[in-house]
Amino acid sequence: MSSNALIKGSLQTIILKLLEENEKMYGYEITQKVKELTAGEIKITEGALYPALHKLEAEGLLTTEIQQVDNRVRKYYSLTKDGQKEVSSKLAELQSFVESMQRIINPGLKPEFSL
Protein backbone atom coordinates (compact mmCIF):
# COMPACT_ATOMS: atom_id res chain seq x y z
CA MET A 1 0.00 0.00 0.00
CA SER A 2 2.40 2.57 1.40
CA SER A 3 2.37 5.57 -0.95
CA ASN A 4 5.16 7.86 0.21
CA ALA A 5 3.31 11.03 -0.83
CA LEU A 6 0.18 10.07 1.13
CA ILE A 7 2.20 9.14 4.19
CA LYS A 8 4.29 12.31 4.03
CA GLY A 9 1.14 14.42 4.03
CA SER A 10 -0.19 12.59 7.09
CA LEU A 11 3.04 12.06 9.01
CA GLN A 12 2.66 14.98 11.43
CA THR A 13 -0.86 13.83 12.29
CA ILE A 14 0.36 10.26 12.82
CA ILE A 15 3.14 11.45 15.15
CA LEU A 16 0.88 13.75 17.14
CA LYS A 17 -1.79 11.06 17.55
CA LEU A 18 0.71 8.45 18.72
CA LEU A 19 2.23 10.88 21.21
CA GLU A 20 -1.25 11.76 22.47
CA GLU A 21 -1.86 8.07 23.22
CA ASN A 22 1.63 7.43 24.63
CA GLU A 23 3.17 9.88 27.07
CA LYS A 24 6.54 9.79 25.32
CA MET A 25 8.15 7.84 22.50
CA TYR A 26 11.49 7.69 20.73
CA GLY A 27 11.88 7.66 16.96
CA TYR A 28 12.37 3.95 16.33
CA GLU A 29 9.48 3.20 18.67
CA ILE A 30 7.21 5.44 16.57
CA THR A 31 8.18 3.64 13.35
CA GLN A 32 7.56 0.24 14.92
CA LYS A 33 4.20 1.27 16.40
CA VAL A 34 2.98 2.48 12.99
CA LYS A 35 4.16 -0.75 11.39
CA GLU A 36 2.39 -2.78 14.11
CA LEU A 37 -0.88 -0.81 13.96
CA THR A 38 -1.05 -1.08 10.16
CA ALA A 39 0.05 -4.72 9.95
CA GLY A 40 3.11 -3.60 8.01
CA GLU A 41 1.12 -1.64 5.41
CA ILE A 42 2.68 1.68 6.41
CA LYS A 43 6.40 1.86 6.97
CA ILE A 44 7.87 5.17 8.04
CA THR A 45 11.52 5.65 7.20
CA GLU A 46 13.95 7.50 9.44
CA GLY A 47 14.54 9.89 6.54
CA ALA A 48 10.88 10.93 6.71
CA LEU A 49 10.35 10.66 10.47
CA TYR A 50 13.16 12.75 11.91
CA PRO A 51 12.62 15.86 9.76
CA ALA A 52 8.93 15.74 10.75
CA LEU A 53 9.84 15.38 14.45
CA HIS A 54 12.31 18.28 14.22
CA LYS A 55 9.72 20.47 12.47
CA LEU A 56 7.09 19.72 15.14
CA GLU A 57 9.67 20.49 17.83
CA ALA A 58 10.64 23.78 16.13
CA GLU A 59 6.94 24.72 15.99
CA GLY A 60 6.70 24.21 19.77
CA LEU A 61 4.42 21.17 19.51
CA LEU A 62 6.94 18.67 20.87
CA THR A 63 9.47 18.66 23.66
CA THR A 64 12.42 16.30 23.95
CA GLU A 65 14.14 14.47 26.76
CA ILE A 66 17.41 12.56 26.49
CA GLN A 67 17.73 9.33 28.49
CA GLN A 68 20.45 6.73 28.81
CA VAL A 69 18.98 3.26 28.20
CA ASP A 70 21.22 0.17 28.19
CA ASN A 71 24.34 2.20 27.29
CA ARG A 72 22.43 3.95 24.49
CA VAL A 73 21.22 7.50 24.35
CA ARG A 74 17.53 7.82 23.44
CA LYS A 75 15.75 11.02 22.57
CA TYR A 76 12.14 10.84 23.74
CA TYR A 77 9.48 13.10 22.25
CA SER A 78 6.41 14.34 24.13
CA LEU A 79 3.58 16.70 23.31
CA THR A 80 3.64 20.24 24.68
CA LYS A 81 0.37 21.91 25.69
CA ASP A 82 0.20 23.43 22.20
CA GLY A 83 0.90 20.00 20.74
CA GLN A 84 -1.99 18.52 22.70
CA LYS A 85 -4.30 21.18 21.24
CA GLU A 86 -2.95 20.59 17.73
CA VAL A 87 -3.82 16.87 17.81
CA SER A 88 -7.55 17.62 17.72
CA SER A 89 -7.11 20.14 14.93
CA LYS A 90 -5.00 17.79 12.80
CA LEU A 91 -7.39 14.86 13.34
CA ALA A 92 -10.40 16.98 12.35
CA GLU A 93 -8.54 18.16 9.24
CA LEU A 94 -7.63 14.58 8.30
CA GLN A 95 -11.16 13.31 8.91
CA SER A 96 -12.58 16.05 6.70
CA PHE A 97 -10.09 15.14 3.97
CA VAL A 98 -10.93 11.41 4.20
CA GLU A 99 -14.66 12.19 4.01
CA SER A 100 -14.08 14.37 0.93
CA MET A 101 -12.07 11.60 -0.70
CA GLN A 102 -14.85 9.12 0.10
CA ARG A 103 -17.36 11.38 -1.68
CA ILE A 104 -15.11 11.44 -4.74
CA ILE A 105 -14.38 7.72 -4.76
CA ASN A 106 -17.90 6.56 -3.83
CA PRO A 107 -20.32 9.38 -4.74
CA GLY A 108 -23.42 7.40 -3.74
CA LEU A 109 -22.04 6.22 -0.40
CA LYS A 110 -22.86 8.11 2.78
CA PRO A 111 -19.61 8.61 4.75
CA GLU A 112 -19.56 6.93 8.15
CA PHE A 113 -15.82 7.12 8.68
CA SER A 114 -14.69 8.49 12.02
CA LEU A 115 -11.21 9.00 13.44
UniProtKB/TrEMBL annotation:
Record's superkingdom?
Bacteria
Question: Which parts of the sequence belong to the Transcription regulator PadR N-terminal domain?
Answer: 15-87
Q: Which InterPro entries match?
A: Metal_resp_DNA-bind_regulator, Tscrpt_reg_PadR_N, WH-like_DNA-bd_sf, WH_DNA-bd_sf
SUPFAM superfamilies annotated for this entry?
Answer: Winged helix' DNA-binding domain
Alphabetized PANTHER family for the sequence:
PADR-FAMILY TRANSCRIPTIONAL REGULATOR, TRANSCRIPTIONAL REGULATOR RV3488
Listed name of the protein: PadR family transcriptional regulator
Q: What is the lineage of its organism?
A: Bacteria, Pseudomonadati, Bacteroidota, Cytophagia, Cytophagales
